[in-house]
Specification:
single chain, 409 residues, 7-stranded mixed beta sheet, globular, binds zinc ion
Length: 409
Amino acid sequence: MCGCLGVLLRHATNRRTMLAATAVGIAGMSLTAESAQAAEDEAERRATETRRLVAESAKGARSRVILLGTAGGPTFWPGSTRVGISSAVVVGDAAYLVDCGSGAARRLQQGLEPMITGPKPGNTRAYSLLRAAFLTHMHSDHTADLPALLLYGYYAGLDLPGHAPLQLFGPGPRGEMMPVFTPPGRPAREVPAFNPANPTPGTKQMIDLLLQAYATDINDRMRDQGRRDPAQLVQAHDIALPKLESFRSPNETPTPSMAPFKVFEDDRVRVSATLVAHAPIFPAFAYRFDTDDGSVVFSGDTGPCDNLITLAKGADVLVHEVIVQAFVDRAYPAPRSPAEEGLHAHLLSAHTTAEQVGKIAEAAGVKTLVLNHMVPGNATAADLMPAQLGFSGRMVIGDDLLEVAIRKT
Ligand SMILES: [Zn+2]
């Protein structure tokens, strides 16, 4: 989620009537409070029924996605039980994590715990199923629960004897500071760098620094309880970008046209990545998991982007972020000054609206579109129903702990 959230948060409530009637196909109905409520109720009923069918179909599937957290943005959304963004891919008894937003570590245990059979002395062994994790980008709403994943992981299965270290992949250092955004008509500002000696660390450094920050706790666990060195629990990797002739720099060409490239492979999954449009964040990745049973793509945070469509071509499931246009419009209502117009466009360029996402899924030829990273996190089903527009497949409004089968169809 990009940085204009403060303005949006002031508009996170009082949102009962947007798009409701058209979203559920009863356009023409006048939007009285009663009819808007009826439309929202009908959208919610349809979304719930779709989720019920999807969950039913996922039972017993060898490969599946577990949505762990489905809210976007570094905030605790009022009136919502969705936690921060995170998903798991499960193939048999192996699990893989995509992003680790606030609340994800707990949700991961909840999602994997039913797979653990046999006696469970003390704490669960759910994390022992986890082989690898992938961060799409370095925004905090995608990474905030990494300390919990690793440090609670001591007691959730990462520290079992013989368990191979979790392989954690994510962006490398950005390499140059992001530009200061200046809306049209406003004077340029000077913004000091935070931590100027190392202002844009990547995944490997972030994990090293997080563990250093927790050294007191870790040394206590090691000396008092015989726990292992965390280096034996996790190995972090900065993803090396392929050489691209069209790439000049993160600020000039944040999303160069490219072919997907391989990040990871084992006997269950092959994981590929591409760069997506979430400037000024760089790099921002989408990931594709190919399994023997089918394929799933995670968009990460992105505006509409050809690289994502290329990566998702023919996938069985596309898990895609979404933002509610009316929510952004309320933050910057028309008529807009040039500066407000710039802020409005800036926010929308880094994300994909409900009206856009179905067309992207259709262009990629995916069978099932699953919405996640809802912004606002308290969006209603009626807000999100426009995601079906232009999409001939099945559209699912995701929710925390919903499971979706990965199955060739
Ligand atoms: Zn983001």
